[in-house]
């Protein structure tokens, strides 16, 4: 009986050892001349890092701002490759770019400066949920003292239960005839919180008391107190239970525990007694009254002076204007980090105390991604029934680093993480793989004629499968580039059947899809389920011209002594001929210029070249978009958790969110590597015949050097004019 | 905005970004006898081809740091520095060539061959660099076999 209890309570405690958690950092912000970064963005980043604004940046972690410049002094930080001392810098801005970066004191140019990275959370082996957890050395002394004064004055003297406390409580209970007072020690409260029971039976209390004694026999008081600070229940945010003072501090005040003033600490301690009853937002009067009682107790116990207590009592509740859910709380990204560490680390390594995990999270991109998704979904719900959900993942192109991940419209909700767990048919997102398989077979290129005409395929069931176009029309013969850009279904099915579905599946696998797909014809229209994360991996291989880099969220893991334990080096393997992939990328660029992605133009900055593909599934259930610029890639999914129709095509839904995000992210234009075995030319968009660019409806395409195209009659390329002559004419037009 | 002014605007933006836009490697921008609507201009605009860019001070500083780290016999450190530079400018073939060299020194010949191939593809008109990349790639592949 007792040994069972002992085992249960030890397991609960060991499962949540909070002593020194692994710290998880975002990527450091790099400052350098020419960087696309506005002054407001740098200031926001500094504020998020907790830099204080002063008239002059004269201490580490301070900054000063004028109209077009920021002066700052960075904090010293031990990076993985070097220890960087505190550095002062003078950053001038021009048009949302860093115009110059100088040493503030001497005004000498500095080529590059890293700021200390943002601490975004902590990780614990064996714990599924993510929490903000405080290490013992981060707990403010006042919090420790207040808890003892208010909740358990004899904490350091008792052995888990407090006989005098129980006797007093029992007396009150007998007097009133009810179970009103607990007399619980902090240890008992901790036990209670592990097993999440609110029943006030005597039997329950008895078990708790024994477990508390058992716990005390095994662990020191400091360990127990720290566990308490991280464990105790402090309220509810919708479905999310708020456990621990660090999270409650972030949630109610928007600040780390260490930065709270006395009245704020007192408020949190006041809430322990009844987090719902003393909820400062729902019952501010009650909460204030109890907070002041705590302040009075602190003064009485001599922990603060009477004057201080009086001054603190005059303060308001000091709450953040609204509960802070986002900002430093990134459940979808943290889940990716946990996944990556779990596959690459053995448990022994992860269990080491004080690990430092340096990730690729870009806090600015994350914030914009969160906003783009929640605002986008709210906007879409003006046209379709409410209840939409979504997911978004942003990566860098080179290096394939995950910069941001949003698992739902409420980004801070640590529930169903759709980035990794929403498995949905990808619809037309499959088409680039179908056409790539065709091009790889050597039988097709972008100007090849394909047929948009009915097709009927026998199925195993005996019935025929007769897929349709989205618009139920047939357009006849067209060049491959147009079939891809306009996402015609029938040419994709025809070409895919001629090439072989197995070949399409093998392209998916070599581009990074790590699962078996049965080669049914319906795969050609995207009847294959993937998560947004998997789609991002596949499209990243397109964005890298057929060079696959595994998606990565962690750069370095250091141990407590800042010695490298693991590094995730840049890996790439060329899985497809770049010349073949560049042709598909040109097709995806055409989709954005004049095909299914065209509507994004109005949202994107003028001149930004991007490539991308919409995806829509049957009955408008899933709305997908995957696209990339020269250096950023994002995948957006919008749909409903119960798989009911979302009422949105890829273009009407996901694309609008993607475009809003890309308009707000710093981006480089996509550039196509057309060289070696490819040449660029213009073809007629309808006929696919080679044409002078100014003659009729033309579109530029790269085609293999060895292919000679038939010229459109009357539109022969060059019209007899030499290239030099045309360039000269263009120049004249420029001057004139 | 017509095609011509758009092309000019693109070049201008690039040079603001600290890159000097070289003429497209593939096709010169065509003359237009008419003033097409913006949409048509966008549709038929030439393909955005890769050009070479002038190196920014940040990338130059990191490249020279990486080179001295390699000289000091610290290819791993150099790799970390080069990856940092590639996050700023991923199309600089010199960075890839250095990275291939550092990988070779670490005896990671697969990576060396891949990085060298990337350097070669980004080399553009820089024949000397392309030859260096090809030579290193061959050497790395020999080690794999």
> What share of the residues of chain B lie within helices?
55-70%
Helix count of chain A equals 23
Total helices of chain B: the number is 7
For the largest sheet of chain A, list the strands in their spatial order.
11-1-14-24-25
The whole-angstrom Rg of chain A is 31 Å
Top CATH class of the largest domain in chain A: Alpha Beta
Query: What's the CATH H-level homologous superfamily of the largest domain in chain A?
Result: DD-peptidase/beta-lactamase superfamily
Low-confidence region ranges of chain B: 1-36
Multimeric state = heterodimer
Helix content of chain A: 25-40%
Shape of chain A: elongated
CATH architecture of the largest domain in chain B: Alpha Horseshoe
Tell me the name of the CATH homologous superfamily of the largest domain in chain B. Tetratricopeptide repeat domain
* Terminal-residue CA separation of chain A: 96 Å
Structural description of this entry:
The complex is a heterodimer of chains A (736) and B (145). Chain A has 736 residues and is of the alpha+beta class. Chain A folds into 5 domains: 28-116, Penicillin-binding protein 1b domain (Penicillin-binding protein 1b fold), CATH 3.30.2060; 131-313, Biosynthetic peptidoglycan transglycosylase-like (Penicillin binding protein transpeptidase fold, Orthogonal Bundle); 330-424 and 530-575 and 596-672, DD-peptidase/beta-lactamase superfamily (Beta-lactamase, 3-Layer(aba) Sandwich), CATH 3.40.710; 427-527, Beta-lactamase (3-Layer(aba) Sandwich), CATH 3.40.710; 678-735, no CATH class. Chain A starts with a helix and ends with a helix. Chain B folds into 2 domains: 3-44, no CATH class; 57-144, Tetratricopeptide repeat domain (Serine Threonine Protein Phosphatase 5, Tetratricopeptide repeat). In chain B, helix 3 packs antiparallel against helix 4 (75-88). The longest helix of chain B is centred in the C-terminal third of the chain and has 18 residues, at 127-144. At the A-B interface, strand 26, helix 21, strand 30, strand 31 and helix 23 of A face helix 1, helix 2, helix 3, helix 4 and helix 6 of B.
